[in-house]
Amino acid sequence: MLLLVLFATGVAVDGESAHARDIAVLATYAYPKYDRAAALQPLADVLAVRLKARVVVRLYESPRALVDAVRSGAADLAVTNTFAGLALLDAGDAQAAAVFEVPPKTAERYRGVLLASVASGPVDATTLAQTPQRWRLAQALRGSTSGGLVQDLHLAALGGSGDYAALNYAGSHEGALAALLAGEVDVAALADTPWREALAREPELASSLRELWRSPPIPPGPVVCRNGGRISCDAARKVLLGLHRDAPAALASLAGAWSEAAGATRLVTVDRDRYLDLAQGFRSADARTAALRRLLD
Fold first, then answer.
1. Which of 17, 45, 69, 251 has its CA 20 to 30 A from that of 287?
2. What is the pLDDT of residues 193-226, one digit of tens each?
3. Pairing outcome for strands 77-79 and 24-29
């Protein structure tokens, strides 16, 4: 679902079909913590000048909706999270154009965790995977990487089906943790940083919540370009890879709207294998592929 249609460079769009007007679409998904429409506008301005195109910024309601927009041709260039990037990684009609290069501290911090209530939850991740129907699970939001996908992949590698007693989307990582603390669910999937911050504020949480699993570091999502769209992917890639040199303020604005991109110094070419490494522990490559398709579609 389209949430907002914002400024074409110098022109208000007001809901008129960008496709019909041959306006290129730079898109991402909304998240309550950030004004991502404002964050993408400087890049839209740079693209408009460099590519001699009219560019509009659009926000979609979720990473899944963003994926659908690229696949349907509604979006030409998409700033994704890792979930959406993985979903589009092997798409024949799209290509990963660039990705944030982040400091080691940022890369180390971007992880997901599985937390369980000591009072009502499972004792370990294997128990959760093997008896999903016994447990109520909260995830951050539909299409979240650190608050959903990496946990789902880990549990799938353990043989889990994902058929939980209840699956709730809390709307944010903090919301998933709050649902667990309130006893509304037995298990929560969220990013590691909100959990560490909560522990620092309230060390006693360690006695009521059990950490079932912590993911390895997660690479940030790539910027994805739709082949044959209203933007030349080769030209867009050239702009993105030179953004740190030619428009550092646009890069800073973009990186500032994703916690996993904090301190990014530039955009670089994409290493496909880093994304596939998120799906480890499967008995075979075919099992991994099947799990990725099930979770990403």
1. 69
2. 999 999 999 999 999 999 999 999 999 999 999 9
3. parallel
Name the percent of the chain in helix, strand, coil, to the closest 5.
40, 20, 35
113-148 residue pLDDT tens: 999 999 999 999 999 999 999 999 999 998 999 999
Bridge-based pairing of strands 55-60 and 2-8 is: antiparallel
Using CA atoms, how far apart are residues 174 and 152, in angstroms rounded to an integer? 19
Tell me how far apart the alpha carbons of residues 89 and 83 are, in angstroms, rounded to a whole number: 10
Amino acid at 143: G
Res 21: pLDDT: 63
**11-70: pLDDT as tens digits:** 333 344 545 468 999 999 998 889 999 999 999 999 999 999 999 999 999 999 999 999
CA 24/CA 22 separation, integer angstroms:
6
Which pair of structure tokens corresponds to residue 119? 């009072």
Three-class SS state of 52: coil
Domains of the chain: 2-106+219-276 (3.40.190.10), 111-216 (3.40.190.10)
CB 264 within 8 A of CB 39: no
CA 95/CA 97 separation, integer angstroms: 6
Interval 230-245 mean pLDDT: 97
| Rounded Cα–Cα distance for residues 47 and 7 (Å) | 13
pLDDT category, 91, cuts 50, 70, 90?
A: confident
The residue type of 24 is: A
Burial letters 155-170, b for 16+ CB under 10 A, else e: bbbbebeeebeebbbb
What lies within 8 Å, CB to CB, of 145 at 6+ separation is 63, 81, 82, 83, 112, 218, 221
* C-alpha distances in Å from residue 75, one per residue of 22, 72, 286: 12, 8, 31
